[in-house]
Each structure stands twice: as C-alpha cells, then as structure tokens.
Amino acid sequence: MPIELKKTILVVGGAGYIGSQMVLKLKEQGYQPLVLDNFSTGHRQVLNEVEVIEGELADRPLLDHIFSSRPISAVMHFASCIEVAESVRNPAKYYQNNVANTLCLLRALCQWEIKHFIFSSSAAVYGQPQYTPIDEAHPLAPINPYGRSKWMVEQMLEDFAHAEDLTYVSLRYFNAAGADARGRTGEMHPNETHLIPLILQVASKQRQAVSVYGRDYPTLDGTCIRDYIHVDDLCSAHLLALEALLAGGGSKIYNLGTGSGYSVKEVIEVAQEVTGQYIKIEEAPRRPGDPAILLADPSLARKELGWQPQSSDLAKIIEDAWRFTIYQLGKTRVLPI
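Request: output the structure for the sequence above.
Response:
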C-alpha cells in the first residue's frame, strides 16, 4: 500500500552529506521533501525523483517565491560551511554563509508564517570541554569561527522564537559518520577533513597514509577519543524533532551522540578489520585546540524525543562508509532515493 504523502518539508542543503540522508528519511516516512541547494558542495545524483531548486539562501526573492508558492510546514537547515581550519583562515566566508544567510532565511520564513525550524548545529559551540560527557548545560565557549557561527545562529533562533511565532529545535552533532546502508549517499566532501573517510581513502588507495595528530594524550592508547554517531541515527533524531514540533512542542536544544567514544587508534584498527586493508599511519604533532576526549551526554534527546541510536556501532559505521566508498570508486550509479 503506498504511503500517504504528509507535509512538505524544505530541506536547505539537501544535496549535502547529512541533508541528502535526511531527504531519504523524509521520503521513507511519507513526507514531501523540497530541496534548496547551491551545489557548492552538494551532489545532484543523490536527488533523483526529488524536487530541487538551485539557488542561494541570500536570494530573498527566491525565498519569497518558494514560501509563497508551496505549502511548507517546516524548514530543516543543513547548508553550512563546516571546516574548522578553513573558518580560521577565512572567517568572512563562515559569518556570511552560516550567519548572515541564515538570518535571511529566518526573516523570510517568519514573514511567510512558517512556524517550525530545525537547525543543524555542532558540539563546536562548547569549545574546550570543562567536563565530559558534555550535556546541554555545559558552558558555551567556541574557540573558532565555525563554532562561533553556529552559536550565533542559536542565539538568533532564541531571539526569533521570543519575537515571532516560531518554534525550533537545534541539534548539536558530535562526530557524524557512516553512510546510507544501501549506498545511495555518503560523505563526498571536496577537501575531506574527517577521520573515517580519510582512513577509507587510504584503504581504497586514494591516499598514501592517514595522519595521527598526537600520541601523547591522557587516554589508554595516547590518541584522541571521539563520539561517532551514524548519519542515519542523526536523521532519525531530526525526524523525531520534526514530529515533536508539528505536534505542538516547544523550542529545544539537544546533543546528538552516543555517550561513548573510540580513540583514533581504535578507529584505524576497526577500519583495517572491516576493509581487509592495511592503513598506513603518519605521525603528526597535536593540533591546537584538540581535546583529549570529547563525548556527548545524549540523555535529554533520549528522554524527550525517545531517540535511540540503532546504527552507531563503530563497525557498522565503517561498513556502511566503506560500501559507499567502493560504490563511488566503481562508478556504480547511485541508487535513486
């Protein structure tokens, strides 16, 4: 029996890594996703049979056209620049795209009385952890323009919610990883900086070695520990947040992570087991600002949203990411959504 179509959801940045996975999730649950993307980093091939509008968030006439011509029930915002090092080199890009363009979007949706907004935020808003695992009450002290840009948007959302008929959920990701289990979408960043895809580039002979930044951290094996969350579990949390807003829930902020972590060394070892390939390592000095351990306390999302990660076992994360990597190398056509 066909699924009855529910509400239209505007997915801004829906051609990107997490946004495209969200489009899959929305379609599977009977929603009607509408994608707005400028394709600066997104990929068209993951958006078969989905309505796509190419354009910029700063284009107010375009936003007015979208909101005035379609019955949009909520907006999900994934269209951010995400590279920490680049944000330090080029802060203007991050304040323009992540902050100013989001302000343009918020002004438009409030004018057109779109009442529900879900924001893709980041654990970078916390800065150096004062304690771990980190809960939502942890002080906010971002240490780079990327983190500050996310924090600024969260402050804007709080102010808009007080002044306008707007409710929002801000979801602070820890380390998003993995890929669609059927290989339809995954990480395809032009300048990859994330550990797992870098490791898999080594396993697939696209890269000579992976750098390990520091071996002298106060952890069991001396390498940093991070909280990895499968992209499908992230999108499940977005779906639950959407349903909560549509049911009349109030504005909320949630951490998204598992509450447990893996060291860099453990990730490399599991990747070698999954891929059957040797992963060459290059020793590198510590990077400024890298905490030894960064873990989420996701108990609030579990309690209030009923969110239970299903796919965030490290082996599962790497298996799905490896499958997507092999599909891409073989130029296998990405399956339609």
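Residues 331-337 have pLDDT under 50 and may be disordered.
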